Amino acid sequence: MQDFDVKELDRLLQQAFDAATALYQQRGFQRRVGFGKRPALVSVDLANAWTRPGNPFTCDQEKMDNEIIPAMQKLLAAFRANGLPVIHVTTAYEITDRKAPFTDMGLWHDKIPVDVVDLKDKDLCAIDSRIAPVEGEYTLLKKRASAFHGTELAGILRAANVDTILVTGVTACACVRQTICDGIADGFRTIAVKEAIGDRVPGAVAWNLFDIDAKFGDVVGVDDCVTYLNSLKA
Amino acid sequence: MQDFDVKELDRLLQQAFDAATALYQQRGFQRRVGFGKRPALVSVDLANAWTRPGNPFTCDQEKMDNEIIPAMQKLLAAFRANGLPVIHVTTAYEITDRKAPFTDMGLWHDKIPVDVVDLKDKDLCAIDSRIAPVEGEYTLLKKRASAFHGTELAGILRAANVDTILVTGVTACACVRQTICDGIADGFRTIAVKEAIGDRVPGAVAWNLFDIDAKFGDVVGVDDCVTYLNSLKA
Amino acid sequence: MQDFDVKELDRLLQQAFDAATALYQQRGFQRRVGFGKRPALVSVDLANAWTRPGNPFTCDQEKMDNEIIPAMQKLLAAFRANGLPVIHVTTAYEITDRKAPFTDMGLWHDKIPVDVVDLKDKDLCAIDSRIAPVEGEYTLLKKRASAFHGTELAGILRAANVDTILVTGVTACACVRQTICDGIADGFRTIAVKEAIGDRVPGAVAWNLFDIDAKFGDVVGVDDCVTYLNSLKA
Amino acid sequence: MQDFDVKELDRLLQQAFDAATALYQQRGFQRRVGFGKRPALVSVDLANAWTRPGNPFTCDQEKMDNEIIPAMQKLLAAFRANGLPVIHVTTAYEITDRKAPFTDMGLWHDKIPVDVVDLKDKDLCAIDSRIAPVEGEYTLLKKRASAFHGTELAGILRAANVDTILVTGVTACACVRQTICDGIADGFRTIAVKEAIGDRVPGAVAWNLFDIDAKFGDVVGVDDCVTYLNSLKA
Lengths: 234, 234, 234, 234
What we know:
Chain A contains eight helices and six strands; from the N terminus they run αβααβαβαβαβαβα.
């Protein structure tokens, strides 16, 4: 696919980000929302349809295997060691006939191939076994991009006194970004874990993380996140 | 600000979009949601704090004066001629003291300078006089990026049998994008009106419209929108 | 349980409703929202935990077997004959340990015994076999009282051009009432189907339907609903 | 209006509540959600259209003047002395022409006379001067029954680390009840302040507080609330 010069794109994007940063800094954007006192992990769509090859939703495999999954494993270890809430999010549908008079896909199948993630194919929708949920962790089934929109997530987090969410997963330009934007709108300090967020097309991770960091959540490296999590130990 | 080569950025971005489009087309993304039967106009943050010079939120003035406002005037004429719902959206806050123990800014002032749009400064929050609301049009006051999140908008539109929204305004990377993503999630056919959407930093309009068109709404030119609106005449 | 005079309660309640109706009529309440053009059936919690004996959630069995289920069967026949959307709603939880640091019960187990409807007990949460879903009907899993709150329902209905919901099920004082109140708030014409709504304590059906009819939705008999549904035939 | 025997109604209602309580207790309902660590006051529709005579929305005046307003004054004193968040809620509309093709009343004017609370009549929608907001308190404008539905409230409260809401105001059978039911669904410990909740028809306060206490929030006397608030002092 990438028969153009990705490195050259990255170089030009960085110049654009630098110019934007100059304006944003002068105007008072790009502030730090920071970590709060009680974080939860919200891991978006790291299910087989997205993490494994051969599906329309398959993401950049090199990044998935070499960066995202390892970063998730680090995060999960820290969340589990500290007894903090973990939410695994997946997406699937009951009625995937695009001609049905009525479907839980709503209108989204009119934009993207959500008709392939049928709830009846349990394997496609299951969280990747390399980061599988353990007892006490929650698997949230969503229907739209955001893990918050039309789901029980905000209420569950508030009930558990969570004030901060660390967001990971795919894709940067859709479900991850929407989850982050809704997260801060719903009153949670929102952190995008840099190494643990992917996509499937060139540039999308870069420009979406740039927009997010400017306005909706802090982009933070996984090691800094782990240090923070471990600092919460009693 | 733009002391780098904007045209070169555009050229590289276009190459990235072409590569992504090849993948998206092969995978079944970038479908057309299309126009429905009863549209509303949702015009986001075309209030003085965003449309006029001298404010942290001020957007690209050349584009505002020469493209966005004229496109909005065309759209308003068509919506009004056909008696269709028009919603003007603005953003402002009651409690703008950043040290207050509690504020309607929520946590957003921890990322961006929302503390400057104080509800008491009626002029800043007022819709730009060049596109001012007329009798029967609605002015929605929102607190977050999306015109839907935490507002009455979805309920009002459904009650009026609206099935399609044409979205305009600023900024592409925040309030416009969030409104579009929530719009389709809430069950509305969502159209981004190409000439009527702006931002304040280089590249942001291009990459956000690309992401939107791939997954959340159709990017359509203003003249095609006007043709559609006029086709609804009895 | 009912070792007091239920008939005397009903007689006094009717007098209270008559007095309230005099005031409401004079003030302009108790208006008719009426049927729209495209209805959906939203049937709330008619799953075994509520419809069958022996569970904390079990409802009035005589009413269930002799009125609610037969009324539902009439409604389902009419919805199916006319190809209209049917949503069956049920409630269950993944994490039902009341001492868990974090659970999808949120705080609700601090008021009612939701910890008994564990998702792992598929039979408890399954829709009653007498009114079981057929191909093309949707089963919605909710976590709170309302079928709308924190669910995909409003978006799905809007995407399908639904403008009216007929609401049935249990209980009148909780999940049915909340679904109706949210339904009209979300912009749907809301009809409470009189014979198809139950509860488990004396008086609760009467006073909740009275409040609903005064302010949130029309209470309509099942036969009038069926007549309406059949009138929609092409 | 009350030309029937209110005392006799109360006596019979109490018998019904006793019978229901026997069942609820046996089944595990009527649990106590309790107070949390950081409360906010959510005072619903204590604006002139509801608190003063002569409007369709006017409530029971004797109870308003002799119980609700004095209880609110006690609560406000305690919230203010302890620097805790106070939200005053009111309801009003921009477009009150019932024949308009589109209105922020949604469909609610098809049930109740919301067309009388026009935003242009500032006095009707203003909070009662006996309990007027002071600097730092928030006035929330809502469009539906619930103070949460389609508003910024949940996000604002979460951002301020609020975990508990004390709810007051009118009416028991509509806006107060909906606010309480949404409150616990959104993850807040929800307390109905007994003396500070009213209505306009006989019985409605009694049966709605009964339902609320059984399933959605604790009904607690104002003096116990004040004791709790004062216990939070550093």
